[in-house]
Amino acid sequence: MKEKIKKMLKNKLAKDILVFFYQNQASIDSVGGVSAWVHKGRKDVHAVLEELVKLGVLVKDTQGSTKGYSYTRDKKVMEIIESLMGDGKKK
Amino acid sequence: MEKVFAKFKENYDLHQEISVFNECLDNPAWMIMARLPKTSAELKKTKIIKSIKESFDGRACSKRDMVEMLGAFDRSRKAKRLINFQYNKRKGYGLCYPLVYDGEAFGFIVLCGLKKIMPPALAKIFSAYTNAVVRESRRESEIEEINNTVRPRAVALSTVHTVHRLMTSTLDLNELLPRIARLSLQVIRANRCSIKLADKKQKVLLPKATIDLREKKAKLKKVRIGKYAPGKAVKKETPIRGKNYLAVPLIDENVIGVITLYDKIDGKPFTQFDEEIMRTLCEQAAIAIKNAQLFREQEELTLSSIKCIAQLLENRPHGVHHAEASFMKLMSIIGVKLNMNETEIRLLQYAAMLHDAGQISIPEKLLMKKGELTGKEYDIVKTHPLKGATILSKFKPLKPIVPIILYHHENFNGTGYPKGLKGKDIPLAARVLAVVSAFEAMITEKPYRKALSINEAIREVQKNEKTQFDPEVVRIFCEAVNRKDVKKLLRKELGNI
Predict the structure, then answer these.
(1) What is the ipTM of this complex?
(2) For chain B, does the N or the C end have fewer beta carbons within 10 angstroms?
């Protein structure tokens, strides 16, 4: 798991998105919202968000056409991310 | 001010400035301080004295030097400008420069170990450079302030907006309440969320949805209004916050319930910010819950109206029989197997109750006739789907079932009525109703024939697949009607057929 997340974080956009959710763990946001926070296009952000959901790093809530992405609640995954993020500050 | 001073000390351009002026002034000692000493005792404890000692072979500053320095600091503090000073029998030179922000000095630069008084031209450059660094530090500090105050709120606002969209896109209360609980847990990062709705007559709060991520799960129980945190929040109509719980009332026009969160994942107490977020979330949740409740009431009203019409039809000869629960269950099972959504299944059930509504305009003598119908009479009977569709189209909530009623006598091979539609041109729901209504007619006693048994009727339906009925629908119907629970219910409702 750790290796998979590490590999994913080599992608700058994936890292930016993960840093955003790591720093704002209470956030639930749509593709549009996340693209505004990381200053990247919706299409690219959507693809990376889905990858992070598959990896178990993010959780997706879907209702009709609305999708909300949020940070994992899985303690093991949270510990792995904590160790990888190092000096990233939580808010 | 402290933040601006911290930014100033860390500023890259300040370090550039120090390096440039070190070359021009032959490496003086720099002291950047938030406040200047006011007494000799304070001055003795500063690095200023230490640096002077170092630059004069360990000789201490005289009392007179210290008095001069303190006087210079005082003038610099008051005049808010660069002040030069001398020490050690006028062999050493220094300067004090205040860092001014909004007319107030938030720090000072003290230079010691100068070989002579800084020339006025160089002092101007020094002031300009230092002031530019002050402005830069001020900007950095303001940006950081915005980041620390506005950004978390902007992120929270965006979260609340997304949560609002996720909450308001369903009108099904059974789906909505657990969803609100899950979203609340996520937003507040808590371990347990419970939603209780108020029963004002009983003066209690009834648990409606709970998500508990803790190993030791709490029991669901009703709470009297006024008791414990949820009850108090409802009674006082205000959030109640403790170290490990936060109860926020759901207020629309009145209090309709309460959302209570317990135990944050990080073990920290609930904060004012959590309370603010939950207040906003609860305002939206209350509207979503109220809408879902109104929608449910509307649905119940529609269903009551349908039952009322069905009751009227039942009193007609050849009307519907009492097996309502069986047919509702049958329709539900078939609908699920055909991947219909909840609304489509509900409409299918309504159609099952009202499929022969058009018979209300068929003369009773035709419906009661024991012998075979004449061609003309049969033509009149064949008008009942159209008549039923016309009657029901007047009732707005039933408009979606009009095509189901209109086409439920169409045959799969195109020999049915009123339009002679064939195969998949017949709406799926109408193909389902064709099978179920035919089965219903077969197991009901008619003036011109006896009722068939359930098994005889099933065989009759199977016999007519591909011609009268869609074979796929027949297959699913047979699976459904042969289920033990369905047969048991049918037998109970119809008597011993």
Answers:
(1) 0.86
(2) N
Q: Exposure string (b/e) for A19-31, b if CB count within 10 Å is 16 or more?
A: bbbbbbbbbbbbb
Backbone angles phi, psi at B308, to 5 degrees: -65, -45
In a domain, B419, yes or no: yes
pLDDT tens for each residue of A47-77: 999 999 999 999 999 887 889 999 998 888 9
Q: b/e per residue, B334-368, with b = 16+ CB within 10 A?
A: bbebbebeeeebbbbbbbbbbbbbbbeebeeebbe
Task: Please check whether residues B81 and B121 belong to one and the same domain.
Answer: yes
Q: A67 to chain B: nearest residue by CA?
A: B166
pLDDT bucket at B57, cuts 50 / 70 / 90: low
The verdict on B196 and B275 lying in the same domain is: yes
Look up tokens 């508990």; give the residue: B212
Tell me the chain B residues in contact with residue A24 when contact means C-beta distances shorter than 8 Å. Answer: 152, 155
Per residue in B24-44, pLDDT tens?
888 888 999 999 999 888 888
Residue of chain A whose alpha carbon sits nearest to that of B148: A91
Residues of B in contact with A68 (CB under 8 A): 162-163, 165-166, 183
